[in-house]
Amino acid sequence: MASSCAACKGSGDRKKKKQQKKPKCELIGYESLPEWLKDNEFIHGYYRCEWPMRETILSIFSIHNETLNVWSHLVGFLLFLCLTVLTAMVIPSDGISGTFEDASSARSYWGDLMSMANMTEALKHEAAAACLLLPPATTDLSENEEKIPTSCPPNTSSSPSHHHVALIQEDAGRAPRAADAASTDPITRWPLFAYLCGAMVCLLTSSACHLVLCHSERTAYVTLRLDYAGIAALIVTSFYPVVYYSFLCHPGLQRLYMGFITAFGASAVTASLVPAFQAPELRPLRAALFSLMGVSGFVPVAHKLVLYGGRQEAVVTAGFEALMGALYGLGAAVYALRVPERWFPGRFDLVGHSHQLFHLFVIAGAYAHYLGGVEYLRWRDADKCW
Ligand SMILES: [Zn+2]
């Protein structure tokens, strides 16, 4: 197909190529773009168009209107890679990991992670837990517990039931259940790692899409579908820790919600395979479909609050989920409305246009969801089913 935009000079002729080592590629304006590259008329300049693949890939190091779109999600990918390594190393896995041989060491690693999040709060809760849960002198301590000198009044109750311990601990906030050694075996981590993988897939495919989409219409066709699949992967895997840990004691609901969102995500990816789905005028529909998929997360979160609304852990995790929803919602709105470039066309071509803001909202929302996931582990490591 003949190029309809200014291609790189010296990229097609082999003899000339030898004389001129690097083809010179130029950035062009919106009006010079072929129809398949026209997406946002409020971004006027700095477009790459049908550059050779080598030059397209190397343009990651040059300035054009996609540079910050590529780098924002690439940095986001690296952030989530670090979070994955951190989660694997700092949080004990499955209670049988070779790294964390017993529940005692697991608890100390928990302390490390939580102190990073909020050391003051953790210390406050540790102190409250120590005061409220210190067993009477006549009660046998578990082999993993240490006697700690304390000025707290002695606990004069007879050996408390598990339920009684849970109630006392609830009063003590989100403190680790130090006295309940039997419940300190960590719960499985796969739903949180599935989410981290989904986030990394989304961020990496998005970054790659922004980098190479301009190479050819065919490349755009393939990478845009990869991009939609990545977004669907992020949304679907975002449900997994929420549903798995919220309904840990309700396997029927676990299967129902996980099956629903997985089927929804697969349907969205299938729908996005339809070429007409890419048309610029369908931008609000694209935003709406993926937003609807995300908004459906409201159902299991509300259901969790109905089941566990009295527990601080349920409220805290729902708070992170609400924050994530707000950030994604803002991002989707900015994406669909194309602000601020709509108000000042051509002024935000390189920095500050809606897609860059959308990327930042996505990273912030995904990070809020990760923090919620860590709260789930904390909750379910201490309390499995009760
Ligand atoms: Zn993007």
Automatic annotation (TrEMBL):
Positions of transmembrane segments: 70-91, 192-213, 228-249, 284-302, 314-337, 357-377
Record flagged with keyword Plastid: no
Biased composition (Low complexity): 149-160
InterPro entries for the chain: AdipoR/HlyIII-related (IPR004254)
One GO BP: response to sucrose
Organism superkingdom: Eukaryota
GO cellular component, one term: membrane
Binding-site positions, Zn(2+): H210, H355, H359
Keywords, sorted A to Z: Membrane, Metal-binding, Transmembrane, Transmembrane helix, Zinc
Main localization category: membrane
Topological type in the membrane: Multi-pass membrane protein
Presence of the UniProt keyword Metal-binding in the record: yes
Single GO MF descriptor: signaling receptor activity
Region of interest (Disordered), residue spans: 141-163
Subcellular location: Membrane
Matching PANTHER family: ADIPOR/PROGESTIN RECEPTOR-RELATED, HAEMOLYSIN-III RELATED FAMILY PROTEIN, EXPRESSED
Entry protein name: Heptahelical transmembrane protein 4
Organism encoding this protein: Lolium multiflorum (Italian ryegrass)
